[in-house]
């Protein structure tokens, strides 16, 4: 069961974290090869902010919709998978952030730092997995909890090293943007909670159409609120989306 939940939690990490970080890596490399560490820093922070802005609502939908996803894919064993997936939400957030944070070091030809931190993270994961998964502790969900704790540990250690090397890396505008994104996510969580209350998962709910319809009814308003409130909070991350929506809305209709 933990294997199934682990597979589910990898989907948003690979879809958003790995994809965006891989696409951005050549640009980061190019900035350094041009001798422009200032532009490297600017691009890195922009990508990091975008990833945080994207993954937070995804994590919210995953947490509140975990039972829907589990039943849609795994049917009879869904309750156990849903519980484990809930504890893996932290890992979804921090593993996604790690995907771009690690490339900050790789772009500077520093593979040693992420490797050393990963070795410590593996040791911590082994210890926490053994400690938290005991029957008198959290049982099987302890493995998922260990994953989330270790993912957060790995990211925060790497961020601390980055600040140690470059104290001016995280300027006030970046910190302000992240705080506003977290504030926006509060409205996102409230929306998702309300939608789950309106469209609860019933015992009789079965089948792709029924479960997908409820998931869409929960997910779409949640992301609409996230984008709308982000715009009201003046977040830069939402501007490309609003620009695309505006272009589609103003596109002339050809009548043949």
What order do the helices and strands come in, and which of them pair?
Blueprint: H1 2-33, H2 37-64, H3 66-74, H4 78-87, H5 89-107, H6 112-132, H7 141-165, H8 172-198, H9 208-232, H10 239-250
Helix pairs in contact: 1-2, 1-4, 1-5, 2-5, 2-8, 3-4, 3-9, 4-7, 5-7, 6-7, 8-9
A few lines on this structure:
The chain has one domain (2-250).
Rg, Cα atoms, Å: 20 Å
| Number of beta-strand segments | 0
The residue ranges in which pLDDT falls below 50 over 5 or more consecutive positions are none
Please identify the structural class as seen in this structure: mainly alpha
Descriptive overview:
- The chain has 256 residues and is mostly helical.
- The chain has one domain (2-250).
- It is built from 10 helices and no strands.
- The protein has helices at residues 2-33, 37-64, 66-74, 78-87, 89-107, 112-132, 141-165, 172-198, 208-232, 239-250.
- It is globular and about 60 Å long.
- The mean pLDDT is 90.
Task: Name the features.
0% strand; mainly alpha; single chain
